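Q&A log
Question type: sequence-to-structure
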Amino acid sequence: MNHATNPETGTDRGQGATIAVPAWLQDLSSRAGERFESHGWPHKRLEDWKYTPLTGLAALDHAEAEAGAGADLNDIRSLDLGGAPALGWSPDRSPEVRGTLPDGVRILGLEAALDAMGNRLKPLLEGLDTDAPSLAMSALNTARLGSSPSSAAVVIVVESGVDAGTLAVEWTRFGASNALDNARVIVLLGEDASLDLVEHHAGAGMLNMVNQFELHRGSRLRHARLQDQQASSWLITRTELFQGQDSEFEQASLDIGKGLARHDLRTRLAATGARCVTLGAYLPTGDAHVDHHLDVRHEAPGCNSEQVFRGVVHDRGTAVFNGRVHVLPGADDSEAHQSNQNLLLSREAEVNTKPELVIEADEVVASHGATVGQLDERAVFYLRSRGVSEPLARRMLTGAFCRSVVDAIGNETVREALRERLEAKLENAS
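Response status: OK
Response body:
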């Protein structure tokens, strides 16, 4: 599949057109729209949104986005992923792929996916919970699914036994600052399949994104996200993850942008031997705000989860971490570990952290902890006594603090690409 080709996405509809959707999806979107209107925008009275209210979005045009106004394309540098295929978007929101996909890998726009596998997608789309007021953004996403010019949707299918390698997904938006895009990415991995999916969010704009990942027996998904958007940008993501027997999932997020980012992860370890590792490093500067909310459910025995998050907060930046691990009855012999550590580098910086463990099973190994502190001045003094300047000493220490997260990324190419962006961020922030 070559650059600017989309043979599997259906007919050319032209910019701003909508796709043909079945009646059940129209009904689903209609009900979700009513739910969003009932819920309203997430506000600080909701516990899950206490520190990241979105009431300011109410004045925005969340139905339509005007393309073309915003960041300069020349200001954005793509990640160097060794020539891996890259997924982008055409003016009519159809997926476009640069490079060649391996055999056994398909990327379909929503219309083509519904034609080819509607019976498989129907329970997945209908199963996304949008009932609670805290899920209003997901309700809005579903309401716009396939029916709005400001909505993009794609289905990535990896057949059983196929190693799909690395796929970059470029969310480079140049929409009007007063408009909100909606996007849905569905990844379906067959048994013993594998994929490294790398999201890059850059430029200006506002995006409300839902990921739905389904991992079957023995499959592996490594999902990386780099967020380095401009100050005017908002990124709201929700990832719904289903893990089958002996499946492996790794998510690594690096948030170095200047706007607002909110990431929700909800995962079900639904069968024996499933493993979920979530890594995160965030460096909000200026007035940037980063929020991570995680809900990991151990539903079967013998599963493993780990959450490691590190934050360095400068200037008036704010960070939120709420990580919840629930080991349900019957999920014996589970192992769950959670760690969130933060450095405050200014008097105006703020961190709100809340790790949670709920254990209702036997023979469980679990730990959790959170810290908020400042750089060790003794370590700074030690480096200065060895001839290192104070700015460089502080950059070295903060770099080591966050680099431990990036260094844990399993894919070497992705690890090096994110490490390079981390080092550049640290140098500019010092």
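Response note: The helical segments are 23-39, 110-126, 136-143, 377-385, 390-406, 412-429.
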